[in-house]
Amino acid sequence: MTMAKNVEELFTLQPVVMKQLQTIFDKNRLAHAYIFDGEKGTGKVDIMQFFVKLMLCEHPHQNVPCETCRNCRRVDSGNHPNIHQIYPDGQFIKIDQVRELIAEMKMVGVEEGRKIYVLHHADRLNIASANMILKFLEEPDGEVTAILLTEQMQSILPTIRSRCQHIKFQKMPRQVLLKHLQENNIPHSMASTVSMMTNELETAIFLANDEQFAHARKTVLKLVEAIRQNVHEAMLVVHEEWLPLFKEKSEIEQALDLLLFAYRDIVSIKANPEAACTYPDMLQSFKETALHSTYERLSSQMEAILQARASLQRNMNRTLMMEQLMLNLQEGYTFV
């Protein structure tokens, strides 16, 4: 159980959560149960490790674990006898796992001090194991702290939720995600695009390396360029490239999102030529478009894309939908 990230990184990722946990420790207000609730990639496991180490550290300094005492070292090596972690066995956390955990927690003489147990994917407790944990939460034995990690807060029994202090993790800030993508050798232009599609690092890396996504991005940008020229060019790209490429509903949704981000870029650039964009590689072209368009026009173009997305949900014929969208996007383009 190593501290995968240093304290500064954890503060960059989750400033509010880190301050909250340090204040709890500083004022000696440790609750007997916490739910760490946040999407994948928000740092829940790293921050849980920080908090566990802080609670057990022999010489904490300014609410940060010392990293050198016997307890810190044992937490790092994963063999501290007072820490118990449970992961789902298959689809669920099963009652036998919880029974075994409670037996271990009640064993006398293992080690003095606080005992900590961590339930990973706590939303996957089945009914029997959830009820057994609930009983243990209501009547903890001595100095015990539970940390329940989840991406699906609403799937945890309300009776369990009400007995835990809720720690809400925010999505990864875009700047942090961009930095991680850069460290993974993702080109800046692609990193800028995928960081608008997801806040989750693994998904972002997958998209950035996915040929299908790269092709989708290229096709969307080709369409934006065609719309600048005239409606015939736009219709040509729709029929020859867009419709053959985007067949599934989810693919069309993603493509329309990518198209919407292009127009958002143009609006941002019109307001501030130095704005951070989804498509930094299109900056010159978008600056030109921004110059020849009004905010009102750009706003109605974005509205047209949102309407197309809504008509997709109503199962409108996608060829008809795209032709209508091209006409709506084309109207009012005035080039000097």
From TrEMBL:
It catalyses: DNA(n) + a 2'-deoxyribonucleoside 5'-triphosphate = DNA(n+1) + diphosphate. Residues 242-330 form the DNA polymerase III delta subunit C-terminal domain. Keywords: DNA replication, DNA-directed DNA polymerase, Nucleotidyltransferase, Transferase. It holds the Pfam family DNA_pol3_delta2. The keyword Cell membrane does not apply. GO terms for molecular function: DNA-directed DNA polymerase activity. InterPro entries: DNA_pol_HolB, DNA_pol_III_delta_C, DNA_Rep/Repair_Clamp_Loader, P-loop_NTPase. Its EC number is 2.7.7.7. This is DNA polymerase III subunit delta'.
